[in-house]
Structures are given as C-alpha cells and as structure tokens.
TrEMBL record:
It comes from the Bacteria. The keyword Transcription applies. It comes from Sneathiella sedimenti. Keywords: DNA-binding, Transcription, Transcription regulation. This is HTH luxR-type domain-containing protein.
Length: 122
C-alpha cells in the first residue's frame, strides 16, 4: 500500500511488484455495488430518495466535485490535480462536505453510502 504516486512508485520499484491502495480496493467494491444497484456511477444517484440526498443538495458545486472524486477512491492530492486546485483547498472543501453529510471521515461516508445501497435493496 502507498499514500501517493511518489510513494507507490518507490515501493513498486523496490519490490518489483504491483502496489494496491486499500482505498482503491474499497472504491472498486463500492463501484461494483453501484453498478448492481443502478446503471450510473454518480454518488448523487446513490443517495437519491434518501435523507442523505437532502444533505447532498446543500453542497456547493466544488464540494460536490470533491464528493464524487472521494467516493471514487482518490486521495486529496489526486483530487487536487484533477480539479486544478491545491491539496490544502481540497482539504477545506472535503472537511466542509463531510460535515454537511454528517460524517467525519471518508470511510464513514463510504459506509453510509453502502448502508444506503443495502437498505434500498430490501
């Protein structure tokens, strides 16, 4: 496992083996659940019809972008590169987004989404 692209490359070169980040594995699992639940991979669609969808409506455009990239398993630095903003700015948007969603970590957000998908299937 590695934190960012630089660490991943160092470990890959030193070990001669592929490096897999746990958040990518979790995001991949959630993505499979999303595909089974719906034909779209949008995080907003996952929460449609739930109390969480109301929270999602309170997000700013940038917080919504951070939300979508976060549930795809991207780290703050990767989100920053994708959006063309600084990692510190991502941290601020992420913290505000998580607070509005009623969780304190990205992992809690993923659990909330998975729980929502599971309840929708029942």
């Amino acid at each position: 496992m590695g934190y960012d692209a630089q660490v991943i490359n160092l470990i890959r070169e030193a070990s001669g083996r592929p490096v897999v980040q746990m958040r990518r594995v979790i995001a991949g699992t959630v993505a499979k659940m999303i595909k089974q639940a719906r034909s779209t991979s949008s995080g907003a669609d996952l929460l449609e019809g739930s109390a969480l969808s109301l929270r999602l409506e309170d997000l700013t455009k940038r917080e919504h972008q951070v939300f979508e990239l976060l549930i795809k398993g991207l780290a703050n630095k990767e989100i920053a590169a994708e959006l063309g903003i600084s990692p510190r700015t991502v941290e601020i948007h992420r913290a505000r987004m998580l607070a509005k969603m009623g969780v304190s970590t990205g992992s809690e957000l993923m659990r909330l989404i998975v729980r929502n998908i599971s309840n929708a299937r029942i």
